[in-house]
Amino acid sequence: MPGVEEQTAYDNVFRALKRSPALAPGASRVQRPAAICGGGSADQVYAIERTSTDGSRTVLNVYNFTNAPQCITVDLSGSSIAVPQTPVGLSTQRGGPRITSTA
């Protein structure tokens, strides 16, 4: 049985899924190459661009499977994501670190 903290995190994920049409089951998905800044195992991070079926909303989901906050690079070449911009955490609705480009 999950604890209160785990249940809250689980509930937050499902609230986020309901808020964004880009996270609906029919949304398109394109995996984007991702890596931890300065190195790390390729299986520690994952990035996917999702776009709603009508093309009106796009989200970039970046997953960090380590036990600590990480600087993560994502290759956005050929994506519809413009930089610079400030992301919003879909589960927390709070701003995150600004996305910049080295290209």
What can you tell me about this protein's structure?
By secondary structure, the protein is α+β, with helices and mostly antiparallel strands. The chain is built from one helix and five strands. It has one helix spanning 4-19, and strands spanning 28-32, 34-36, 45-51, 58-64, 72-74. The chain has a three-stranded antiparallel sheet, with no helix packed on it. A two-stranded antiparallel sheet has the order 2-5. A hairpin with a 6-residue loop joins strand 3 (45-51) and strand 4. The longest helix is centred in the N-terminal third of the chain and has 16 residues, at 4-19. The protein is globular and about 45 Å long. The mean pLDDT is 84.
Q: Could you provide a short overview of the structure?
A:
This protein is an alpha+beta fold.
List keywords for this structure.
3-stranded antiparallel β-sheet; 5 strands
Mean pLDDT: 84
H-E order? HEEEEE
The fraction of residues in strands falls at 15-25%
Structural class comes to: alpha+beta
Classify the oligomer. Answer: single chain
Distance between the termini: 46 Å
| Biggest sheet record | 3 strands, antiparallel
Low-confidence stretches: none
Question: What's the structural blueprint in terms of helices and strands?
Answer:
Blueprint: H1 4-19, E1 28-32, E2 34-36, E3 45-51, E4 58-64, E5 72-74
Antiparallel strand pairs: 1-3, 2-5, 3-4
